[in-house]
Amino acid sequence: MYTPPQFEQPDIQVMHDLIRDRPLATLVTLGANGIGANHIPLHLAEMPEPFGVLRGHIARANPLWCDLAADVETLAIFHGPDAYISPSWYATKQEAGKVVPTWNYTVVHAYGSLRIIDDAAWVRTQLEALTQHNEAAFPEPWAVSDAPEDFTEKLLEALVGIEMVITRLTGKWKVSQNQPPQNQRSVIQGLNASGQSGAVAMAALVNAGVKNIG
User: Fold this and answer.
1) What residues contact residue 164 under an 8 Å CB cut-off, 6+ apart?
2) Which of 33, 67, 89, 176 falls between 20 and 30 A from 118, CA-CA?
């Protein structure tokens, strides 16, 4: 991933927070039929340090689990907030007009070797951890144990576990750091007024950068 120094995110905890907030990963693998991409929610555990481990499950019908090249790195991509940035928002547009559109975004790339785990007990534990994490904010959280046991057992038979110990973790936060403070402030105003999906979240990220500078 091309990452100019001003957009590099070095903080592991910040990257971990994005993974937890946006757990749906694009899992890129290499198999006999070439490069594959699957979209899978992955649960992060912080141990082993320094980068942690990602765990998930796939349908047994998914060829990923039996078509995985040995000793080839796997990439899990996690996308955070993103938003289009209009040049009309820049305060400096009035001065010289030398402004162009861009796209702000945050993303984390996690690398490691993918391990296949064909074990129903392991998959059940993973399901419980993933469900607990994603249900925690609800007033009446659903648990795996709420489903009938025979139904759950049949479900587990149709699933295979996956695990990736993270060996490399890179983050890119492109949130208007390359703009002067007056443009950053006007971008925040433009995003908050735009009505775009994700714009308010992006405005908060740009604003955090402004506060760090000021």
Assistant:
1) 42, 53, 54, 55, 74, 76, 110, 112, 113, 114, 115
2) 33
User: Taking 60 as the threshold, does the pLDDT of residue 92 lie above it?
Assistant: yes
The C-alpha angle 120, 122, 123, rounded to 5 degrees, equals 65
Separation of alpha carbons 19 and 27, rounded Å: 13
Nearest to 118 by CA among 69, 30, 57, 52: 57
Strand partners, 35: 30
Residue pointed to by tokens 């994490």: 133
Q: Which CATH architecture has domain 5-83+102-177?
A: Roll (2.30)
pTM of the model: 0.93
Cα–Cα distance, 27 to 111 (Å, whole number): 10
Q: CA angle, corner 202, sides to 200 and 204, nearest 5?
A: 70
Q: Average pLDDT for residues 77-84, to the nearest whole number?
A: 97
Identify the band that residue 213 occupies on the pLDDT scale cut at 50, 70 and 90: very low
Cα–Cα distance, 139 to 144 (Å, whole number): 16
pLDDT tens digit string along 17-49? 999 999 999 999 999 889 999 999 999 998 899
